[in-house]
Amino acid sequence: MKSYSQLIFNNLRELLYFLKSTNFSKAILIAIAVTVPILLSIKWGHLEIGLALCFGAFWSSPSDVSGNFRHKKLGILFSAVLVMVVSFIAGYLKLETRLLIPVLGLLTFAIAFISVYGFRASLISFSGLLALVLSFAHESQELEIYEYAILIGVGGLWYLFLAVLWYHINPKAQTEELFGETYRLTAEFLETRGQLVGPKTDRLELQSKLYEIQSKLIEHHETLREILLLSRKSSGRSSYQAKRLLIFVELIDMLETAIANPVNYDKMDALLGDHPEFIESFQNLIFEMASQLRLIADMGADHNKFPKNSKLAQCFEKVENEITSFRNDTGAGDFEGGLMLQNLFHYLEKQFEKLKKIKWLLGNPDMGSVDLIDQAAARRFIVPQDYDPKLLLSNFSFRSTIFRHSLRLSVTVMVGYALGNFFDFQNPYWILLTIIVIMRPSYGLTKSRTKDRIIGTLLGGAIATGFVFLIQNPYVFGVLGVVSLVVAFSMVQKNYRAGATFITLTVVFVYAIIRPDIITVIQYRILDTLIGAGLSFMAMLWILPAWGFMEIREQIENSVKANREFLAQIAHYYELKGKVTTTYKISRKEAFVETSNLSSAFQRMAQEPVSKQKNLDKIYELVVLNHTFLSSLASFSTYIQNNPTTEATLKFKKFISQIDKNLEQVLLALEGSKLDQALVDRQNGPNSKEQLPTFVPQRIELSSPMDIKLERELQEAHLVTEQLQWLYSLSGKMLRLVSKIEFD
User: Fold this and answer.
1) What digits encode the pLDDT tens for the residues 339-362?
2) Helix (H, G, I), strand (E, B) or coil at 387
3) Which of 217, 426, 458, 579 has most Cβ atoms within 10 angstroms of its Cβ?
């Protein structure tokens, strides 16, 4: 009974998330933007005007995604201009099929190529492609071509008006939703680390999951950074914005603190295999912390319902007592196990402090007592998009992924249009629509969207057939069409299969109002979707394929460069001491972002056909080494910031130089340059650990409380003396590995 109640509760909670989401509110906006012009035009007898406004609003909506509000407005505005221009050009394409096909290909390529300017530009490009393809679906009989095109532009402005109005009605919705998702992802990240601590777990699978969550988290961090830091100067600095910015910093610190405190899980199994109760206590503590983060996400700003700190304090007290008991039982015989437990305990204490700070900030504190962030310095963390026209020229090459994708898409669209006309399909533009919606630059995403599109269309067609036999009322079809439209656009980002199902339902219900042979429409809809999906999938295989191994080298290179720069900044700070500079923080942020990008690139490569997964095992090892290297850098960075350090010795500088030289050779190997073979051979020999003292405690008794200071010093010595050796070892492994991989 309890399990059913829990299932119902979870489903209701998911439904509530869905109804409160920005995806749902955006779908409502699209439904209003589409239906209002149609209803008014029917009432006043000017259907052509209503359709033009409806199309313009619909085609301009893809740019309405999470991000800085100014960028969102500009994106919708540029989309409106592009769809107006495309509609104007398409209106004059009254050519024979043999002449129209190459013109269609050129236009498709030109519009798709806009994507070189980044993610938002790719959405503007998608709007243009929608306008191009759907211009074949409707030809205005009452309006001149230029009038029709202008009204489409006005429709885009109509959607922009609705988006701006909704933002002013609920300006915090987007930010709060992103924070909620970030809380949940952070909770999932901590929880996965907690699962890794337990023995007899599939650590390879969990580690892969951890990298995936880390990538998603960093994406959310980038979006939040853009929203919080790129607000207009004229809006001033509100208390809400200041608090959310400080909470954002704590969430970033939680991720970086976790990465900076890696756990040697196999070693923990060996040292603590006889004490599973300690591991269980640590796991309970971690899971409770994750649970509290989820509750914060659910409660939003209602701090009165936040979980109390007392429960976590009890968990900490229990773990601390067990650590003391462990020391008393083992004495100096298992110093390393005790030290490992103590380090893990201190790490969780840091996370608890950050969690308490988040709850305190959400509890409406007096912001006068808080150190606010220098926004001028903070804006340096945002990398501005380059809109130089030279970017088009530099990407006009087969080496460019966007160039290859644009060319592949244009060829596929031409083939699809030719097939649709040759076999005289009822609605050949459906084939083109399927192609532009499904095809993506990467094989893995195109494959998954192809499968989801086919399943969704078949499922939607089956459901629609049942409705058509049961219902004959056009008004009911109209209501069902609007409801399906809202659900479709609410789910298309989160669950493309479900989105495709409801899009099919929407199309069928709309056609059911205006055409009696609706079963024929459903059949052609399914057939056109199958053809478009098949063409898209074959194009990814045979037309200028962009396999993962072709881009993974660049991603590895970017990650190594970022880690190398972070290492240089750490060494610079260690030598000069003082205050942490913004440049230092930016290098740390870039290292995390590029390592995350590398993980995403590897995931795409792993989804490709086995025959195209060249050197997959070695590349996976390189990805893991990069993550481990960054984790070690973050650990070292955290230590030197939070502890007084001595003057940098010649040994320190020499070790940093050797690590840097290894990374330099790794980059040379990735660029295809000749390596220093002597340096590569040296990595196959024993690691010269004598260059720094090794941490080997002797005759240490930790049972007395008098030894706390000594214990702290030993922990510091353990990190200082071992960290650089570990970094040197990792860089050497990377060099050995990359020298054996042939990327071409």
Assistant:
1) 777 888 888 889 999 999 898 888
2) coil
3) 217
Same domain, 539 and 599: no
Which of these three, 335, 356, 381, is where a domain ends?
381
In this structure, are 612 and 656 located in the same domain? yes
Token output for 394: 């530099």
DSSP helix, strand, coil percent of the chain (3-state; round to 5): 80, 0, 20
What residue type is 415 in one-letter code? V
Residue 390 lies in a domain: no
Structural domains in the chain (count): 4
Distance CA 255, CA 225 (A): 15
711: in domain = yes
> Which residues are within 8 A (CB) of 196 and not within 5 positions of it... i.e. 6 or more apart?
203, 206, 207, 210, 263, 265
The size of the chain, in residues, is 744
Residue 428 and residue 312 in one domain: no
Residues 17 and 116 in one domain: yes
Counts of helices then strands in the chain (DSSP H, E): 28, 0
Same domain assignment for residues 45 and 81: yes
Q: Which two tokens stand for residue 437?
A: 């919606």
Q: Token pair for residue 184?
A: 């949940």
Residue 686, SS3?
A: coil
Q: Taking Cα atoms as reference points, which of 683, 687, 688 lies closest to residue 735?
A: 683
Q: How far apart are CA 85 and CA 236, in angstroms?
A: 37
Each residue's pLDDT tens digit, 519-554: 887 888 888 889 999 999 999 989 988 887 778 889
Which residues span the domain enclosing 599?
548-738
Please tell me whether residues 430 and 507 are part of one structural domain: yes
Tell me if 411 is assigned to some domain.
yes
Contact criterion met (CB below 8 Å) for 299 and 176? no
CATH of the domain at 560: 1.20.58
Instruction: Indicate the pTM of the whole model.
Output: 0.86
**Residue 414, helix vs strand vs coil:** helix
> Domain boundary at 348, 381, 414, which?
381
Residue 20's φ and ψ, nearest 5 degrees, are: -90, -5
Cα 338 → chain centroid: 38
